[in-house]
C-alpha cells in the first residue's frame, strides 16, 4: 500500500500547508473531490463579493440623492457581471494545472474516508474505490456545506444553496422573485445583491432578528435599512413548499402567533447555516473525535484527539471565515514543520469579520452582552457617522435611518474587548481595532493612557501595548476622514457596568 509523509484532505485553505510540505521535499498526497480552491474561491467569499460590489454601486447611486446628485441606473449587465464572476472561479483550473506539475505530490480526485489506523480510502461520487493509502501526518481541512432543514415539499419543489448557485443553478438573469430561508450572514448578503438587481426578495428567519451574531442594535439598524428594498419576516418558520403555476409557494408560520402565510417566488435560496463535511470523511475510524454536530474537536495547537492528525478551517466549527483558516494555517505550519519542540497556540480573542450586506457590518471581539456575561467591568462608546465631518459630507444626518455607528467596548483598564460598526467602510474601519487588539501582550508596565475619564486607577490599566487604545489616543487622525468615526468613539466611552 502506498504511504505518504503528509496527507492534506480538502483542497481549500489546506493547500497552503501542502505547499510547505512539498517545498520541504516531503512525499505528499492531496485529496479533493471538487474544484480546487475550496468554498472561498469557487462558491463563497470571492464570487459573492463580485456580485456584492455592483449591488453596492446601485445603492450608493441611490444614496447620492442625499448629497445632491441624481443618478439613473440604465442597465444591469448581468452577463458581464456573471462573466467577471466565472473568470475568478475558473482560476481553480490554474491551481489544478499548477498542482499537476508539483514533484512529490499525488492528487486523489475523490472523497477521502478514513478506513483504519492512519489509513484512507478515496471514493468517487458513486462510491467507487479510487485507491487506499497510509499517511504519517494528516491535515483535515474538509470544510462544510449548506445545512438543509427538513421542510415538507422542499426537495420536490427544488431550491438553491450557495453551492448550486455558484454552480449549475446560476441564473441566466436575476430572478423576478426570491425567498431566502435564513437571516444570517449568507442570507443578508444574497438579499442585498438580488434586491439591488431588482428581484423581489423576502427573507424568512425563525429567530426574532437578522444576523443574531451581532449587537441587537446592529440587527435592528440593518433591518430598518433593508426594509425599504425587501420584505423581512422574522419570528417565522418555513413550514412547507409546493409548486403552483411555475412558482414555488412557501408556507411560513409565525412562531409567536401561529399565523400562517404563503410566499410565492420564482426561486428559494436555503441559507440556514452550515453542516460539517465529516460525514464523508469518517474521522472516528482513525480515532479523531468530533462533537455532536460533526465538527472536528481540536485543541489550542490545532491537534485532534489522534496524534499527528491536525485540523484547520471551517471543519473545526469555529468562526467560519477564510481569514480565520489562514491564521490557523500560519500556526499549524509552525507546529507541524518546526524543528523545535515548542508548540504554538491559536488565539481566537480577536477574530474579525465583515458582513457584506447594505449597510456593511464589521465585527471584532465581544459584544456588550458577552463582555458582561464574562464578568468584565466595561465602558461602552458609540459614535455616529453624522457626528464626523466626513460622515456629514457623505450625506449622513442625525436621526436618519441610514446614520450608522461604531460601538466600542472596553474593560475598566481601557483594553479593547470588542468593536462593532455598521455603515460605509465598516470592514476597513474595524480592522484598526483588530491590529490594536493584537499588539503587545508582552509588556508588564502600566502607563498613563492620558484619557479624559479618570475613573480607573492608572496602576490597574492595561499596558499600552496589550490591546489598549493608546496608539489611537496619541495619534493625529486625518481630518476630515472616516477614521475620526472610530477614533472619536473613545471620547464617548461611558461606564456601563463598572464597580466604583
Ligand atoms: C456564500 C459564502 C460567502 C462567504 N464569504 C466569505 C467572506 O466574505 N469572507 C470570509 O472570510 N469567508 C467567507 N465565507 C467562508 C469561507 O468560504 C470559508 O470560511 C472558507 O472557504 C473555509 O475554508 P476551508 O478550507 O476550511 O474549507 P473549504 O474551502 O470548504 O475546503 C474544503 C474542501 O474539502 C473538500 N472536501 C469535502 N469533503 C471531503 C472529503 N471527504 N475528502 C476530501 N476533500 C473533501 C471540499 O470539496 C472542499 O474543496 C463564505 C462562505 C460562503 C458559503
Descriptive overview:
The structure is a single chain. With 500 residues, this protein is an alpha/beta fold. Helices cover 28% and strands 24% of the residues. The protein has 16 helices and 22 strands. It has helices at 15-23, 38-43, 45-63, 78-89, 91-100, 154-157, 162-165, 185-196, 216-226, 278-281, 322-337, 368-373, 389-393, 426-438, 470-473, 483-487, and strands at residues 2-9, 28-31, 105-108, 111-116, 119-123, 129-140, 144-146, 177-181, 200-204, 231-233, 236-244, 247-254, 260-265, 267-270, 274-276, 309-311, 352-355, 361-365, 378-384, 405-411, 416-422, 494-497. Strands 1, 2, 3, 4, 5, 6 and 16 form a seven-stranded mixed sheet that branches. It has a six-stranded antiparallel sheet with strand order 17-18-21-20-19-22, sandwiched between helices. A hairpin with a 2-residue loop joins strand 4 (111-116) and strand 5. Helix 3 runs antiparallel to helix 4 and helix 3 packs across helix 8. It starts with a strand and ends with a strand. Flavin-adenine dinucleotide binds next to helix 2, helix 3, strand 4, helix 10 and helix 11.
Amino acid at each position: 500500500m502506498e504511504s505518504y509523509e503528509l496527507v492534506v484532505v480538502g483542497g481549500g485553505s489546506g493547500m497552503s500547508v501542502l505547499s510547505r510540505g512539498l517545498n520541504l521535499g516531503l512525499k505528499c498526497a492531496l485529496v479533493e473531490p471538487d474544484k480546487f480552491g475550496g468554498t472561498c474561491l469557487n462558491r463563497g467569499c470571492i464570487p459573492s463579493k463580485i456580485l456584492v460590489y455592483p449591488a453596492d454601486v446601485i445603492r450608493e447611486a441611490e444614496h447620492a440623492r442625499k448629497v445632491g446628485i441624481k443618478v439613473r441606473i440604465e442597465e444591469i449587465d448581468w452577463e458581464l457581471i456573471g462573466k467577471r464572476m466565472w473568470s475568478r472561479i475558473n482560476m481553480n483550473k490554474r491551481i489544478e494545472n499548477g498542482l499537476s506539475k508539483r514533484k512529490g505530490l499525488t492528487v486523489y480526485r475523490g472523497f477521502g474516508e478514513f478506513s483504519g489506523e492512519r489509513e484512507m480510502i478515496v471514493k468517487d461520487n458513486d462510491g467507487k474505490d479510487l485507491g487506499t493509502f497510509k499517511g504519517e501526518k494528516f491535515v483535515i481541512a474538509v470544510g462544510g456545506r449548506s445545512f438543509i432543514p427538513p421542510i415538507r415539499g422542499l426537495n420536490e419543489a427544488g431550491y438553491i444553496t450557495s453551492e448550486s448557485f455558484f454552480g449549475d443553478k446560476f441564473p441566466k438573469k436575476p430572478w423576478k422573485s426570491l425567498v431566502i430561508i435564513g437571516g444570517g450572514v449568507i442570507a443578508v448578503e444574497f438579499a442585498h445583491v438580488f434586491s439591488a438587481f431588482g428581484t423581489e426578495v423576502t427573507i424568512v428567519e425563525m429567530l426574532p432578528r437578522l444576523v443574531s451574531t451581532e449587537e441587537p442594535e446592529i440587527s435592528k439598524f440593518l433591518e430598518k435599512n433593508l426594509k425599504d428594498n425587501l420584505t423581512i419576516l422574522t419570528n417565522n418558520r418555513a413550514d412547507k413548499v409546493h409548486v403552483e403555476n411555475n412558482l414555488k409557494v412557501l408556507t411560513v408560520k409565525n412562531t409567536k402567533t401561529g399565523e400562517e402565510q404563503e410566499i410565492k417566488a420564482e426561486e428559494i435560496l436555503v441559507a440556514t447555516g452550515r453542516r460539517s463535511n465529516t460525514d464523508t470523511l469518517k474521522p472516528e475510524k482513525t480515532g479523531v473525535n468530533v462533537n455532536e454536530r460533526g465538527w472536528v474537536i481540536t485543541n489550542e495547537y490545532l491537534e485532534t484527539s489522534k496524534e499527528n492528525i491536525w485540523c484547520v478551517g471551517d471543519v473545526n466549527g469555529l468562526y467560519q471565515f477564510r481569514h480565520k483558516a489562514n491564521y490557523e494555517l500560519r500556526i499549524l505550519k509552525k507546529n507541524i514543520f518546526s524543528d523545535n519542540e515548542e508548540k504554538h497556540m491559536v488565539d481566537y480573542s480577536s477574530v474579525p469579520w465583515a458582513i457584506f450586506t447594505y449597510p456593511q457590518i464589521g465585527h471584532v471581539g465581544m459584544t456588550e452582552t458577552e463582555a458582561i456575561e464574562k464578568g468584565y467591568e466595561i465602558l461602552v462608546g458609540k459614535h455616529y457617522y453624522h457626528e464626523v465631518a466626513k460622515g456629514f459630507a457623505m450625506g449622513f444626518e442625525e436621526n436618519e435611518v441610514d446614520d450608522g455607528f461604531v460601538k466600542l467596548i472596553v474593560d475598566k483598564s481601557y483594553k479593547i474587548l470588542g468593536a462593532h460598526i455598521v455603515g460605509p467602510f465598516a470592514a476597513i474601519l474595524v480592522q484598526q481595532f483588530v491590529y490594536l487588539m493584537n499588539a503587545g501582550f508582552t509588556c508588564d508596565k502600566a502607563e498613563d493612557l492620558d484619557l479624559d475619564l479618570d475613573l480607573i486607577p492608572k496602576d490597574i490599566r492595561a499596558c499600552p501595548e496589550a490591546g489598549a487604545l493608546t496608539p489611537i489616543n496619541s495619534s493625529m487622525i486625518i481630518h476630515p476622514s472616516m477614521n475620526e468615526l472610530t477614533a472619536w468613539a473613545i471620547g464617548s466611552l461611558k461606564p456601563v457596568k463598572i464597580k466604583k
